[in-house]
């Protein structure tokens, strides 16, 4: 399974926001925890239904979302 297979977008789960498969944990929640200084180990300990691969999947998803096409300025 690819890490990205762990991320789902389902209108019936957290209003269609990207979330970890099988949970209601949004990608944005995981990213907020990481941004505030939490480690992967702390997140997994605090949210036992989240694995370290789930956290890595959130990071990979966010990296792909932040990527954009380079526009030719000429």
UniProtKB/TrEMBL annotation:
<dbReference type="InterPro" id="IPR036388">
    <property type="entry name" value="WH-like_DNA-bd_sf"/>
</dbReference>
<dbReference type="Pfam" id="PF04255">
    <property type="entry name" value="DUF433"/>
</dbReference>
<dbReference type="InterPro" id="IPR009057">
    <property type="entry name" value="Homeodomain-like_sf"/>
</dbReference>
<dbReference type="InterPro" id="IPR007367">
    <property type="entry name" value="DUF433"/>
</dbReference>
<protein>
    <recommendedName>
        <fullName>DUF433 domain-containing protein</fullName>
    </recommendedName>
</protein>
């Amino acid at each position: 399974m690819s890490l990205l297979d762990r991320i789902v977008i389902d209108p019936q789960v957290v209003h269609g926001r990207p979330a970890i498969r099988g949970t209601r944990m949004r990608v944005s929640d995981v990213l907020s925890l990481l941004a505030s200084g939490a480690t992967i180990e702390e997140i997994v300990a605090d949210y036992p239904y989240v694995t370290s691969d789930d956290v890595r999947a959130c990071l990979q998803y966010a990296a792909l979302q932040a990527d954009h096409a380079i526009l030719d300025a000429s």
